């Protein structure tokens, strides 16, 4: 039985004080539930929000991580810095990082490895563009992304990884993949994991869907057999919406 995981990705939203205020209102959402609740917040807010989450079952994540522990990488944040704050998760390879900040499959793989080495669980994002979906190359694209992201990752390490399928055309657009299409791609990802590792790992790895998930569609998405959770942008910024999402 895979534990459902609903993660809010705040992206570049909420100042530190706004974030702390918000977390005060949602920090009980991880109580009395089988759902794992995560908030992935801007780097500058991590420490304050970690303090606010003391005693809470809501987990904390960053939205990126650098693969080196230190060095001449102006503007970057290292795994040691994140580890000291005590985060649980790091989103890696989000399509916005790939699109605007030149993230590649190679850097995604390095970041996955460094996260695991520092006890931070990676949420690894993959997904196709609209053009690739229309050309029928979506599966090919996702297969390459998954295979490269997981290069050199051991069977044991797979239990610390969460995968997230986010079709780029569904992110922030209000367009959601139909729950059946999302499930089909996620089942395909599970098959890739099975091919690379084994059936047990493919049946235990958690795979989220992301892209315009809202209170109105979350139940249908979560009812799909292969979908274990949601990585949510816009709707994770509002208390009522986020509450409904984690109670799908
Ligand atoms: O990381 C979250 C995804 O990019 C989805 O964002 P969205 O829910 O605003 O479409």
Overview of the structural elements:
The protein is built from eleven helices and eight strands. With 248 residues, the chain is an alpha/beta fold. The protein has a single domain (5-246), classed as TIM Barrel (Alpha-Beta Barrel), CATH 3.20.20.70. Helix 5 runs parallel beside helix 7 (138-149). The chain is globular and about 45 Å long. The structure holds glyceraldehyde-3-phosphate. The site of glyceraldehyde-3-phosphate has 14 residues, from strand 8. Glyceraldehyde-3-phosphate (G3H) binds at residues 9, 94, 166, 171-172, 210-213, 231-235.
The number of strands is: 8
Biggest β-sheet: count, sense, barrel?
Answer: 8 strands, parallel, barrel
Please bin the fraction of helical residues.
25-40%
- Any idea what the radius of gyration is? 17 Å
- Please tally the helical runs, counting DSSP H or I stretches of 4 or more residues: 11
Task: State the low-pLDDT regions, or none.
Answer: none
What ligand species are in this complex? glyceraldehyde-3-phosphate
Write the element-wise H/E pattern from the N-terminal end onward.
EHEHEHEHHEHHEHHEHEH
| Number of separate domains | 1
The strand order across the widest sheet is 1-2-3-4-5-6-7-8
CATH class: Alpha Beta
N-to-C CA distance: 17 Å
**Which percent band covers the strand fraction?**
5-15%
Mean pLDDT: 97
Overall geometry comes to globular
**CATH superfamily, called what?**
Aldolase class I
Protein name: Triosephosphate isomerase
EC number: 5.3.1.1
Subcellular location: Cytoplasm
Catalytic activity: D-glyceraldehyde 3-phosphate = dihydroxyacetone phosphate
